[in-house]
Design a protein that fits this description.
It is a single chain. The protein is of the alpha+beta class and 179 residues long. It has helices at 37-61, 64-84, 159-168, and strands spanning 29-32, 86-91, 95-100, 105-109, 113-119, 128-130, 138-143, 151-154, 173-174. 31% of the residues lie in helices and 24% in strands. Strands 6-8-7-5-9 form a five-stranded mixed sheet, with helices on one face. The chain has a four-stranded antiparallel sheet with strand order 1-2-3-4. Strand 3 and strand 4 form a beta hairpin.
């Protein structure tokens, strides 16, 4: 039998990729969030002082049932506070992810984000889920889909960098007071 040149051709392996294809493995941008400790420390300090004082008073007068209720209430309140405090924000090639202290996250696809704007208002945005840990440098994300189409308000560590990276993945952004 004679061999043809087409018999000698080798098909490329399925795992080979072109050198120009980008790898989309990790986040484009990842950052912590801005914390206003001058607001959080006094609030948590007063709360802790009241809880410790009431707990000691209940232990002294022998109200062990009330003591147990107070400790349970304190643990529950701490868990609720930890559940709503964001830890990190990440911009991926196709989504924005807000991660929380207890490990869960809110994922917003870039196709579902209508607008991301700088929010310098004194009070929280009406009709938005508020996860802000600072009163300055906040960002309001207007969503098309999600929990009742509510926006998301949070304070990234570097607002201008976050907005720049969101623009790079095709999300519309605006400066404060423009909308």
């Amino acid at each position: 039998p004679t061999r043809r040149s087409s018999d000698l051709e080798v098909a490329p392996a399925p795992y080979q990729t072109l050198a120009c294809e980008p790898t989309k493995v990790g986040p484009v941008y990842e950052s912590g969030l801005k914390w206003d400790w001058f607001l959080l420390v006094p609030i948590l300090g007063v709360y802790a002082a009241i809880m410790v004082g009431v707990t000691i008073w209940m232990a002294v007068i022998g109200e062990w049932v009330a003591f147990g209720v107070m400790v349970g209430t304190t643990v529950f309140t701490g868990a609720v506070i930890a559940a709503v405090l964001p830890r990190k924000v990440a911009v991926w090639h196709d989504r924005l992810v807000l991660r929380f202290l207890l490990g869960y996250s809110i994922t917003m696809l870039s196709s579902d984000i209508l607008l991301v704007e700088e929010y310098d208002g004194c009070f929280g945005a009406v009709g938005a889920l508020k996860f802000s840990t600072s009163i300055s440098g906040r960002v309001l994300v207007h969503r098309r889909n999600g929990c009742m189409n509510m926006g998301v308000l949070f304070a990234p560590a570097n607002r201008t960098e976050l907005l720049r990276h969101l623009r790079s993945i095709g999300v519309r952004t605006e400066a404060a007071g423009v909308v």
